Amino acid sequence: QWGQQVYAIVQNTDQAQAVMPYGPKCIYVLEQNDALQRTENYAESIAALLKDKHPAMLLLAATKRGKALAARLSVQLNAALVNDAAAVDIVDGHICAEHRMYGGLAFAQEKINSSLAIITLAPGVQEPCASDNSHQCPTETVPYVAPRHEILCRERRAKAASSVDLSKAKRVVGVGRGLAAQDDLKMVHELAAVLNAEVGCSRPIAEGENW
């Protein structure tokens, strides 16, 4: 079974304290963790750590930044990569990851033959284990290895965000251009309330109609 020994890689000490109750054997804190640091710049630092520790699997969130980092690590470590995994299992001693294909119409199962499997997990795939606030584990600092071409962030600007994180919703009622008017959204919200769901919409509705 996978996950018998779990190690966590985090960007700062606050994150280290947040994940410690979930039972990692050790937590690695990345250097150069200021607010303007780009996640992709950590690829060389994490690659050096993984070469030293020889893990069987590295799990990342299937976000834009997570996938960009995973791709860099895959090249540097010559490791197989599966994005947006919906399930992970051990079959005949090999790590296998299931992911959607053909626009979500089918699932494919990939058997990973490399010594290291790099997998980005889709939201909601893995439920967190029970936390134990009494759990303690060592933390180690991972030296920053600057990439040859470093991505620099000069400024951050606030972006108007949705009031709901759809990636964490159990159910979503989708809205498309089948609605004739914005007033029709009322019945959609009523349906979502009955189903205990959130409301999402297609890009034409959000960007074209500005509903």
UniProtKB/TrEMBL annotation:
| Gene3D superfamilies tied to this protein | HUPs, TPP-binding domain
Does Repeat show up as a keyword for this record? Answer: no
State the SMART domains in the record. ETF (SM00893)
| Gene Ontology biological-process entries | fatty acid beta-oxidation using acyl-CoA dehydrogenase
Which branch of life, at top level? Bacteria
Outline the extent of the Electron transfer flavoprotein alpha/beta-subunit N-terminal domain.
1-155
- One Pfam family matching this protein: ETF
Annotated GO MF terms: electron transfer activity; flavin adenine dinucleotide binding
The UniProt entry, under InterPro entries, shows: DHS-like_NAD/FAD-binding_dom (IPR029035), ETF_a/b_N (IPR014730), ETF_a/FixB (IPR001308), ETF_asu_C (IPR014731), Rossmann-like_a/b/a_fold (IPR014729)
Keywords, comma-separated and alphabetical: Electron transport, Transport
What family classification does the UniProt entry report for this protein?
Belongs to the ETF alpha-subunit/FixB family.
Q: What is this protein called?
A: Electron transfer flavoprotein subunit alpha
What species is given as this protein's source?
Answer: Escherichia coli
**Lineage per the UniProt record:** Bacteria, Pseudomonadati, Pseudomonadota, Gammaproteobacteria, Enterobacterales
